[in-house]
Design brief:
The chain has 332 residues and is of the alpha+beta class. The protein has helices at residues 13-20, 65-80, 127-144, 156-167, 174-188, 232-265, 270-273, 276-295, 304-321, and strands spanning 37-38, 42-48, 51-59, 88-89, 98-102, 105-113, 118-119, 197-200, 209-212, 217-220, 227-230. The chain is 44% helix and 16% strand.
Length: 332
């Protein structure tokens, strides 16, 4: 999912090496930088004493520091309760998050250990794996329901306000702004309880979960998009990724296996599951707004990969825009 402005998607290994200097690393492992990826953050792999780790960084203008600090606190909490989340690695000055001024601007940076296992997108799905996948999310929500944070992460209400502010700067914004208002009204009618609402991963999709065949454990990465929302938001995002991976013929089976695993760990009632279409609308609107913001600035002589990316992003935005403002045919 694109979040950073497109101008930050260019490979900058000099910047990555400068930031990495705040952690211990094996100098001969920097050739791993060629496997970088950039979307909502820049991610560069490297090794430290033979252990594979990932440097994650983004410009301070693209992130909220309070949210990052809250993300790291939540990860520590989950790991302290035996949840299989990635581990943040302290820098040389014993901080998990650093802020540093560079010739390219000011950046936030953190480092995480590589988790064991194979990315779920590369796994041959069977009933046990899908059950464990669902059980892992259920475990996450169970722990979230008991989490008392020191640092407050933003909520879906903050996200809706952020979207409204971003959209107000663009032309032809009315359909998307109507969607913001529609969702604000709809969500205001859903009861919030300690059992159904809390800090969600938000991006609990197949590419952010690694299955370790040796242990049968699902290891979870990328809590960057976490927010306070109803737990069913995570379920919708996950089911959407399952549908995309499995296709329509196997989706019903995958959905059932996943939900069976989830319910084995944490309860979810049919009434909340009936609201999944509304949460899809939230996800589509959030994605639309982030892409709109990220791709607004254009330059002459853009490289082919960037021009191709713009085409894909425009198609995605138009598909999402088609549903904005339509009545939600869900009774509350």
């Amino acid at each position: 999912m694109i979040m950073m402005k497109l101008k930050y998607l260019f490979d900058n290994r000099d910047l990555a090496e400068m930031l990495l200097g705040n952690w211990k690393y094996d100098g001969n492992s920097l050739d791993m930088f060629k496997y970088y990826r950039i979307s909502s953050n820049a991610i560069y792999p490297f090794q430290s004493e033979g252990t594979t780790r990932f440097l994650r960084f983004a410009p301070v203008m693209e992130k909220d520091k309070t949210n990052i600090i809250a993300e790291l606190e939540f990860i520590r909490y989950l790991r302290s309760n035996q949840f299989s989340a990635l581990r943040a690695v302290s820098s040389n000055n014993v901080h998990e998050l650093i802020t540093i001024k560079t010739p390219w601007g000011e950046y936030y940076a953190a480092v995480f250990d590589k988790v064991p296992g194979v990315r779920m997108t590369d796994v041959d799905f069977d009933e046990n794996i899908m059950f464990q996948f669902g059980k892992t999310l259920g475990h996450l929500h169970k722990l979230s329901s008991m989490f008392i944070p020191t640092n407050r992460r933003w909520s879906y209400q903050d996200v809706l306000s952020w979207m409204s502010n971003i959209l107000s700067d663009f032309q032809n914004k009315e359909p998307a702004l109507r969607e913001v208002e529609l969702l604000q009204r709809f969500f205001s009618k859903i009861p919030k309880t300690n059992d159904n609402y809390g800090l969600v991963h938000y991006d609990f999709e197949l590419d952010n979960v690694f299955y370790d065949e040796a242990t049968g454990i699902c290891n979870v990465i990328d809590f960057d998009d976490a927010m306070y929302h109803w737990y069913v938001m995570d379920i919708e995002q996950t089911l959407d990724s399952i549908k995309e991976a499995m296709g329509p013929t196997r989706y019903a089976w995958g959905r059932e296996c996943f939900l069976n695993g989830y319910k084995n760990e944490y309860p979810i009632d049919d009434e909340m599951l009936s609201l999944l279409p509304a949460f899809r609308r939230f996800a589509d609107l959030y994605s639309y707004t982030r892409i709109l913001r990220a791709s607004a600035e254009k330059w002459s002589n853009e490289p082919k990969w960037l021009a191709d990316l713009r085409v894909k992003l425009d198609i995605s935005m138009k598909r999402k825009l088609a549903n904005f403002g339509n009545v939600l045919l869900i009774s509350m």
